[in-house]
């Protein structure tokens, strides 16, 4: 007879690990990826490579009578030169959909980054154990949400009772792509990112392809989304294009069309929602690029500033205001032939009045309470009655 103290390894397979597009087997463990190998081979920089390996929205889903669950991990702790220390990534345990516990690990691999020079270095660290105990012995559905902003190699999962995958059920798969705000930057926990909040409110099965600094209309990201099964699709476009000062208006419009064309190649009739940027005073009328605020960093604070000149918009440089106007125009044009494409102004999720009440702590990313506000509003506007993902659309029933 198996006692409560006996814990057996549980194979980490794709029917248990949800929200990842691939589990890469390494010599140290399994690494959840949010882009497939074909896309990763085309990544041009370390920023996207780091972001896609951070498991925002990725969770383990188990049906079990276990009273103890242990997960061995190697976390990657980020250290930014000159910036204050980052909080540890959080692992959250949900039982039958209800948050009951959370945990962190104190160390692991260390990635040191210099935002001014782009220099990076990695030092390997130890395996640590995330442990949840004292659970009831009845059959239940467990979800362990992995950190949204900290890479985590999965070394071994153990429980003190047999495990089987949670059946997929009738939940619709919601595939979302966006920037660091979608990934969850400045959110305190993985279930506190705005897409996770919206998915929980709406009862959707989230696949979050929010990539910090990297929602840049990359064709390989569009192809990954094209090839990912989904019932509902949203893309939140704009802030990173301005941050990077990536392109001018002439290139932006065709790039958006090309991205959406690729999505439609794989999902010709799925509801497709294009979301423009939330309010951000930094770049409403001032182009990029964005840079760290060195004065703030000298005081131990992380803050960003815009370095562009508003007069340059006449030559096609992009601001959030310009991007919203262009996205609305593109969706109106496409809707003439595609009745299931929709537009949502990001200021309806977080607007100027919201920034006055809940300022962006670093001038760029929402605080935890604002993430919850955005998620709740998205659930109402997108998934509610009359929304593009709502029950009133016959295709969503």
In short:
By secondary structure, the chain is of the alpha+beta class. 25% of the residues lie in helices and 26% in strands. The protein has helices spanning 37-40, 46-53, 180-183, 194-202, 219-226, 239-243, 249-266, 294-298, 320-335, 352-357, 368-383, and strands spanning 8-10, 17-18, 22-25, 30-33, 59-64, 69-80, 91-95, 98-103, 108-113, 120-123, 128-132, 140-145, 152-159, 163-165, 173-178, 205-210, 232-236, 272-275, 290-292, 304-306, 341-344.
List keywords for this structure.
11 helices, alpha+beta, globular, six-stranded antiparallel β-sheet
Description:
The chain starts with 7 loop residues before the first strand and ends in a 14-residue tail after the last helix. It is 25% helix and 26% strand. It contains eleven helices and 21 strands. It has 397 residues and is α+β, with helices and mostly antiparallel strands. It has helices at residues 37-40, 46-53, 180-183, 194-202, 219-226, 239-243, 249-266, 294-298, 320-335, 352-357, 368-383; strands at residues 8-10, 17-18, 22-25, 30-33, 59-64, 69-80, 91-95, 98-103, 108-113, 120-123, 128-132, 140-145, 152-159, 163-165, 173-178, 205-210, 232-236, 272-275, 290-292, 304-306, 341-344. Strands 1, 6, 9, 10, 11 and 13 form a six-stranded mixed sheet that branches. Strands 2, 5, 7, 8, 12 and 14 form a six-stranded antiparallel sheet that branches.
């Amino acid at each position: 007879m198996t006692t409560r103290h006996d814990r057996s390894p549980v194979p980490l397979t794709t029917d248990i690990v949800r929200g990842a597009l691939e589990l890469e087997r390494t010599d140290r463990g399994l690494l959840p990826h949010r882009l497939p190998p074909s896309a990763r081979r085309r990544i041009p920089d370390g920023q996207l490579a780091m972001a896609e390996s951070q498991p925002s929205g990725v969770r383990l889903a188990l049906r079990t009578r276990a009273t103890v669950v242990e997960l061995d991990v190697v976390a990657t702790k980020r250290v930014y030169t000159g910036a204050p220390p980052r909080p540890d990534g959080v692992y959250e345990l949900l039982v039958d959909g209800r948050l009951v516990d959370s945990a962190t690990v104190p160390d692991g691999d260390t990635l040191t980054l210099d935002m001014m020079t782009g220099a990076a270095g990695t030092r390997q660290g130890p395996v640590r154990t995330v442990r949840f105990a004292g659970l009831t012995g009845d059959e239940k559905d467990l979800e362990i949400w992995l950190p949204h902003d900290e890479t985590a190699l999965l070394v071994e999962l153990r429980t003190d009772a047999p495990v089987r995958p949670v059946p997929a059920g009738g939940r619709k798969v919601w595939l979302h792509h966006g920037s660091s705000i979608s990934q969850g930057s400045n959110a305190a926990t993985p279930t506190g990112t705005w897409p996770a909040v919206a998915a929980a409110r709406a009862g959707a099965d989230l696949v979050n392809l929010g990539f910090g600094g990297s929602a840049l209309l990359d064709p390989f990201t569009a192809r990954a989304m094209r090839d990912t099964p989904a019932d509902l699709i949203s893309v939140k476009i704009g802030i990173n294009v301005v941050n990077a000062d990536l392109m001018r208006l002439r290139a932006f419009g065709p790039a958006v069309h090309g991205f959406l064309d690729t999505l439609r190649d794989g999902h010709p009739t799925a509801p497709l929602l294009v979301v423009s940027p939330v309010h951000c005073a930094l770049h409403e009328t001032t182009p990029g690029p964005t840079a760290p605020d060195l004065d703030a960093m000298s005081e131990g604070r992380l803050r960003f500033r815009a370095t562009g000149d508003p007069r340059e918009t006449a030559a096609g440089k992009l601001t959030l205001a310009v991007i919203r106007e262009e996205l609305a125009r593109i969706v109106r044009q496409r809707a003439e032939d595609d009745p299931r494409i929709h537009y949502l102004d990001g200021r309806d999720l977080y607007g100027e009045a919201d920034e006055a009440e809940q300022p962006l702590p670093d001038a760029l990313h929402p605080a935890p309470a604002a993430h919850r506000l955005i998620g709740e509003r998205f659930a109402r506007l997108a998934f509610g009655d009359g929304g593009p993902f709502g029950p009133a659309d016959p295709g969503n029933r």
